[in-house]
Amino acid sequence: MKAIMVMFDSLNRRMLPPYGGDWTHAPNFARLAERATTFDQCYAGSMPCMPARREMHTGRHNFLHRSWGPLEPFDDSMPELLKQSGVYTHLVSDHPHYWEDGGATYHGRYNTWEFFRGQEGDAWKGQVADPEIPDDLKTMRHALYRQDWVNRQHMDTEERHPQTRTFDAGLEFVRANAAQDRWFVQIETFDPHEPFFSHQRFKDLYPHDYDGPHFDWPDYKRVTETPDQVRHARYEYAALLSMCDHSLGRVLDAMDELGLWADTLLIVCTDHGLLLGEKGWWGKSVQPWYNELVHLPLFQWDPRTRAAGERRGNLVQTIDLAPTLLEFFGLDRPADMQGIPLGSAQTREAGLFGIHGGHVNVTDGRHVYMRAPVSPGNTPLEEHTLMPTHMRGRFSPAELSDISLAEPFTFTKGVRTMRVPGRTFVNAHHFGTLLFDLEQDPGQLAPVTDDDAELRMAGLLVELMRAGDAPPSQFVRLGLPLTGPVTTEHLLVRAQRDQAARAAEELPRPEDYPEGRLSLRTPLTALIGDPVAVEVLRRHVPGLLDSELLQFVRGTPLIDLAAMAGGVLPPDRLRAIATELAEL
């Protein structure tokens, strides 16, 4: 028995033909759906990238206990369990986060691994001189952005693109080992994650008139671009999605050629989606986790059942991938693994998902309940880890100055974790607690106030949090009971309805505000450099100039900062600032 997992990053379900996508060119996803089982109710769990991968290894959620980080010493890793049981495991990937501080323990769980450089500003090619960068719409011009333009010079053909090289290597492994037994290969590409860099033959699939600035890397923020610019970015994403479809087709061709359908499990999956202007948002992580982000595509071919063209409506999650692979190779699930094999008769009533410090969300397939913090401070928020690293750095001494040891959790195998005060960039309290009825409102455009439905969903949420041994601090942060039943006293949708409505207000366009020598379009650097304008900022946005955030957004106009950080600069405050600046 053999297994292949093809994994994409930020793959949008609704753009794929098997899920109703009728304008994208993705014939191989349609071909896959004819051959495999398509899951209609697959939800993400922990977000974003590395939290999702931790639960794909461990079969349990990450986000209630800690943020982005490596595997922990007490974690059960699916590839490592396979390796220890005589199943050869191999990883090929161009996903750069595996090789940063916050992901550095994942690839070593496989027998062998290969990495292909260049994605999303990967610190790859060294160039002292600044690269040539076209005029574009990106405002967050951090070091990754500069490095990405250095890297692109070395990916000037489709053959040199890291996605192509990743699939080349994955197929090389498959062909070299097709006659062997008991192996698992994970072919994982960072695409179609931003930046949406693809080559011309894929762009040609989406002809359209556009003469605006370069735009293939939206910032994570509210949409402030024109409709033509939004449409162009969506086509750039679609072109990269079509490149992913082409790579998927190469895997399907190899399975045909080598006769692997007879004895090889195939899983095609992703970690989360991406907002491309839907609901007025770009990206992820800075807004609530709407279905465009968490309702995922998932396909499986199981040679034991040979269920071709089947669609399944049971609720599944990414924590189910690890137990699926263990079960396929005849291994028992570790006691701490909470996922369910995809082919199992066992089902779940509800699924939990979220990001550390954000909403804690639950769905039963009919309703989605997004529980916000009960207080504006979003406290208490704690990190529980023995691997104190962020995405691209270690915890600072200041973060570790208030360290303590927590009692063991049920899944830490008797080990106590460090307990450190947590932090978030965006406070989910601003958006309020939200309840959506997907049957009546599949686009999640109109949250409902329904005490009975909220009471039931809050009960499911608490049940799943308790089953996952969530830290007591999470119950306090969310205003939910650590023990005992959820009652009407714990409901929040009605209490937070006004703040949710304010957060949902559309951000006015820049031209709707007064303008003068200085305006909302003026970069923060220039405003800070003006002795009068800086006092306007101090008066209306106290604390901004002293925030660590400032080092990342100094070149950003206020209108774009408002689009990124909901609640910091609401429309009425922006108007007051714009009026005072225009008078200078």
Radius of gyration: 24 Å
Low-confidence stretches: none
Query: Strand count, sense and closure of the main sheet?
Result: 8 strands, mixed
Residue-averaged pLDDT: 94
Q: Specify the structural class.
A: alpha/beta
- Strand order within the widest sheet? 5-4-6-1-7-11-2-12
Helix proportion range: 25-40%
What does this structure look like?
By secondary structure, the chain is of the alpha/beta class. Helices cover 30% and strands 13% of the residues. The chain has 18 helices and 20 strands. It has helices at residues 27-35, 49-58, 78-84, 143-152, 162-177, 200-203, 227-258, 291-294, 321-328, 397-400, 451-467, 472-478, 497-504, 524-529, 533-540, 550-553, 558-564, 571-582; strands at residues 2-8, 37-39, 42-43, 88-93, 112-115, 183-188, 264-270, 275-276, 282-283, 295-296, 299-301, 311-312, 316-317, 351-354, 360-363, 367-371, 382-385, 404-405, 418-421, 434-437. It has an eight-stranded mixed β-sheet with strand order 5-4-6-1-7-11-2-12, with helices on both faces. A hairpin with a 3-residue loop joins strand 15 (360-363) and strand 16 (367-371). Helix 15 packs antiparallel against helix 18 (571-582). It is globular and about 75 Å long. The N and C termini lie far apart (73 Å). It comes from Nonomuraea typhae. Keywords: Hydrolase, Metal-binding. InterPro entries: Alkaline_phosphatase_core_sf (IPR017850), Sulfatase_N (IPR000917).
